[in-house]
Amino acid sequence: MTEIGLPSGVRACLFDLDGVLTPTALIHAAAWKEMFDEFLRQRGGGDSGEFRPFDATADYDAYVDGRPRADGVRSFLASRDIELPEGEEDDPPDRETVHGLGNRKNILVVRKIRDEGVKPYPGSVRYVEAVRAAGMRTAVVSSSANCKDVLVSAGIEHLMDVRVDGVTAVEKGLRGKPKPDTFLEAARQLGVEAGQAVVFEDALVGMDAGREGKFGYVVGVDRVGQAEELRKHGADTVVTDLGELLGRTA
């Protein structure tokens, strides 16, 4: 049996979607940038009068990556000392509210996924197939409400026993990352304790969730050169691709 780089005693693997299984983190970052840059230009640069665009790497990693959509909007706006009314979850995308901006971003990301399509990381597919062959149960845990569509587009829906996503979080009142609620819900649905499950994440808030949830092992996936930060936030090991774990012992 292929070694899968995990400690003994684990029974389930909980995979983040964007940046771990699929490169859709890049699509999300581009959609956030397009939405926020348009918003910031319309505001005339804010109090300083100077337009500072959204940084699709630094701002994305610090304020929105891995967070529920509305939390991402709030977090980035706070970094620019901008306050907006919350609005309602069904606010139209042209309304200047937290939910309005979030819905504007969602329209952009759905359009990009539809136009560009999604292909999974080959190393991730090989790894998920290996852990399933080793008898592990698998779940995808994502803050995205578009998780199912991405899984279907990428052709990997059949590799997940459980899906806990942005829709699930709303339905069950689960707090988003950095809180561990969604990962804990996935473990519950798989019938395992947190200590018997492994979290695979590329976002710093995902590392925080893995640590706070007291999961058995946390794997950081470094796609953008933040390995040290992933370790500081709780990663037990860091790889640049899940395929690196194949043939490895923990």
From TrEMBL:
Family matches, as InterPro entries: B-phosphoglucomutase_hydrolase, Beta-PGM-like, HAD-like_sf, HAD-SF_hydro_IA, HAD_sf, PGP-like_dom2
Residues spanning the membrane: none
Catalytic activity: beta-D-glucose 1-phosphate = beta-D-glucose 6-phosphate
EC number(s) from the headed UniProt entry: 5.4.2.6
Keyword presence, Membrane: no
Family: Belongs to the HAD-like hydrolase superfamily. CbbY/CbbZ/Gph/YieH family.
Enzyme class label: isomerase
Protein name per UniProt: Beta-phosphoglucomutase
Cofactors that this protein relies on: Mg(2+)
NCBIfam families: HAD-SF-IA-v3 (TIGR01509), PGMB-YQAB-SF (TIGR02009)
Keywords for this protein: Carbohydrate metabolism, Hydrolase, Isomerase, Magnesium, Metal-binding, Phosphoprotein
Domain of life: Bacteria
Name of a matching Pfam family: Hydrolase
